[in-house]
Structures are given as C-alpha cells and as structure tokens.
Amino acid sequence: MLSADNNHAVHKPALRYRHGEHAMPAEEGPITIKKYANRRLYNTATSSYVTLDHLAEMVKKGQEFNVYDAKSGEDITRSVLTQIIFEEEGKGQKLLPIQFLRQLIRFYGDSMQALIPGYLDISMESFSRNQERMRSQIAETFGGKHMMKEFESLTRQNLAMFERAVRMFTPFGPLMRSNERDEKSSEQIAAAAEAQIADLKNQLNAMQQQLAELASRK
Predict the structure, then answer these.
(1) For residues 91 and 73, what is the distance between their CA atoms, to the nearest angstrom?
(2) Residues 54, 116 within the same domain
(3) Which of 53, 75, 95 is the last residue of a domain?
(4) How many CB atoms lie within 10 A of CB 172?
(5) Are residues 14 and 25 in the same domain?
(6) What total of structural domains would you count in the chain?
(7) DSSP-derived secondary structure letter, 158
(8) What is the DSSP secondary-structure string of 53-105?
(9) Which of 16, 42, 58, 203 is buried deepest, with most CB atoms within 10 A?
(10) What is the CA radius of gyration of the chain?
C-alpha cells in the first residue's frame, strides 16, 4: 500500500504491445500520440510510429487519442484532426460543402464564435444518432432499393437542416444587405430568429417521425 504522505503522483507504466499489435489498451483514457520535429507520429500505446491514415482509422473505430508536441508538450490534437480532414478532402472524399466552409470561416473573430463549437457538437451528436438508427434498420431490412432511397433522402434533409441552422447563427443572416441590417430592429431580428428555430424544430420532428416509421417496418 502506498504511503499517505507521498507527495508525488503515481504514474502507471504505459501499456506496451508486441510489434504490429494495434489492440485497444485495457486502461481507460485517450491514447497519447507524440509528434516529433520530423513530423513523425508515435503511438505510445503500441510503441510504434503511425500515419495520419492510422489516426483516421482510430477515429472511425472510436479509439480516442490526444496528440502532443514531443518537444513542448503542447496539445495539438485539434490541428492534427484538422489535417486529417484536409487529407481526406484531398483524396476526393468531399464531405464538407463549400457554402458550409465559407460560413464557418466567417465565424472566426465573430461575436458568435464562442457559441459555435458547442452547437456543432450537439448537432453532430444528434446527426450521428439518427445515422446509427438508420444503419441498424437498413441492416435488418437490407435488400430493398426503396429503403436506400429513403435513407439518402433523410440524409440530404439532415445535412440541409444542419447547414441552415449554421447560417441562422450569422449576426443578421447571410442574405441581408447592409442597409437592411440597419433598418431591422433587435425585436424584429429576435422574432425572425425564433421563427427560424421553430421551423427547424418542425423539420426535426418530421424527420424523427419518418425514422420511427422506417423503424417500424419489418
């Protein structure tokens, strides 16, 4: 048993794996990835060098990790994940619509910037839950093209609603000219925002109903 007056934190030894082994560690918590000056990435859990492709696969498998600069110790997870997205887009995996990217760039330095990360987290979590429900239903009733068409339709609706919700958070709306902004009172702007939110809620309820109907089919 450790002494109670021990002032030093106890560090558990990092788990090691045989060469080529990529199983998840038994201990909980994100895996530590170190990035060196030569841009090489080192997985401390598997004691092996990895690539961005490896990290992308880890994300898809739900394996959490944090990336740190090996020299400074700075957490650079965000920039590495962004680099993964850049690499995937460069391969032809066009996931992010141009209009969405433009809207996102406009938020940098904007007064609404602090609200966006939390909103995007909630939106993507909700979207992911819907996708998983649809995948499960398709797996159970796979074989019909009609089901796939309905799935694709709901996916397009979900993405469109997501983009529209992001546009709604621009200070006065992306299509409003400067002179129109000056004429709009704060009450009018608030009323318009509330109407848009209500409309989005109605769309979400309709999509949830469609999902329920699809889930009830055998």
Answers:
(1) 31
(2) no
(3) 95
(4) 14
(5) yes
(6) 2
(7) H
(8) HHHHHHHHTT--EEEEETTT--B-HHHHHHHHHHHHHHTT---S-HHHHHHHH
(9) 58
(10) 23
